[in-house]
Amino acid sequence: MESRPTKSSKAKSSKFSMDNLHDFLLTENFHRISCIKSLVRCTSVSHCWFNLISDPFFINRQLLHQQRPKPSTLMVNSHGPISKDPIFQSPGFKLSYLPRRFVRILSSCNDLLLCYSMTDRKVYYICHPWTLKCRALPPTPKKPDDYNRGVKVGLLSNYQVFGIENQWKHRVVRIHDKGSDLVAEVFSFEMGDWTERVVLGPYYKLYGNSVAYNGVLHWLAEPSAIVAYDFDAKEQCRLVSCPITMTMVEYPFCSQCLGVCSGVLRILELVDFQDSDDDSLTVWELEDYPNGNWNVEHRICFKELVPAGNSQVQIQGRDNAGKHQGRLKALGIHPTDRDVVFLQIDGYVVSCNLETRELKIEATADQLLSISAFPVELQWWPTPIPALPQRV
Predict the structure, then answer these.
(1) Which of left, alpha, beta for 51 (phi over 0: left; psi -120 to 50: alpha)?
(2) For the purposes of burial, counting CB atoms within 10 Å of the CB of 211, is it exposed (0-12), middle (13-18) or buried (19 or more)?
(3) What is the predicted pLDDT for the residue at 296?
(4) Do 271 and 282 contact (CB within 8 A), yes or no?
(5) Measuring CA to CA, which residue among 208, 111, 80 is closest to residue 152?
(6) Cα–Cα distance measured from residue 298 to residue 22, given in angstroms and rounded to the nearest whole number
C-alpha cells in the first residue's frame, strides 16, 4: 500500500530557493534582463547571484547585446549633470547621498567621480552616481593648508576585460610642487594607502582638469605642453605633442581645455586678440598618439556664433579697453558628439554646435564663479568600486 506523504514532507518539498536553480538557467534568465541597473541590484540577493553576475564571461556576453551609444554628459560643480536624459535625473547625480555635504568634483574617469568635501578636504571619495556606490579613501598625509596651492588631482580607472580576478585598477594621484621638484602622492586600492614619490621627468606647471586617456593621466601645462603622468613607467612624467602657442597662464584672455571625444584626444582653444577682430574658437585633434600631428578640425570666428532658438546668450562685445565683457572660458569637450563643445559665458554653461555655429544655454551657475565641468560616460556595465584592504 502506497503511503501518503506526511504534512512535514509536503512543507519541505514546497520550499524553493532561486539558488537551487542550475547556474546555467540562472545565467540565461539574467541575460534576458535588459536593464543593467536591475542586474546590479540582483547582485545583492545572494552570494550565488553576485558571483554569476560578476563573472567576466557573463559581463562580456551581456555587453555584446548593447548596441546603443553610451549615455554621456558633463557634470558641473554646483549644478550637476547638464543632460536632460532621464538616466541623469536620478538623485545620485546630485551627489546628495555622499556622507559629507558641500561636495566638489575634482576629477572624472568614465562613469566614476573623484570628489572631496569642502568641510574636510583631507578626505576624498570615489563614487558612482548611477548605482549610488561610494568609497571614502584614507586621509591624505598632507595638512589641509597644502590644498588649493597648485595641487593637481587625477583619477585613473583601468579595466582589464580578460582579467581573472582583479579586473579593475583604480588609482588617485595628487601632484604638487616641493621646492624644485614635483611630488606625487599616489593612492591605489591594491595597497589601500597613500605613497609619496618624486616625479621623474620634465618640470612643467600644470593647469586645467586631468584627462584619462590610453591608461595615462594628462594635463595641459605651461609652457605650451601636455604632460602625461604614467603610474607604471620608470619616468612617470613625459611630454605629448601640443599645438598651443599661447597658454592661458601667459595670456589671461586665452582659454583651453583638454578632453577625449570618441576615443580621440582633443583640445578646445579660445583666443581673444585684444587689438583685432580675429577672435576664434579652435578644435584640435591628435591624429597619432602620443607624438603625431594635431589637425585643426574646426576654427570659427566669434562673430559667426549665433544664439540657438530663443536663447539670448552670446559672446558679448568689447569694452573701451578692447576686452570682451563678461567671463568667457573653454569648459569641456563632448565625450561622444564630435560636433559639440562647451563654453562658460558669464554664469551660463553653453553648448556650441560646431556645424551650425549655434550657442545654446545648458545650465546656469554662479556668475562670479569659474565653473568646473567633468565628462561622465556611463559604461554598459557599471564600474565597480572595490573594498579597501583591511588594515592590520
Answers:
(1) alpha
(2) buried
(3) 94
(4) yes
(5) 208
(6) 56
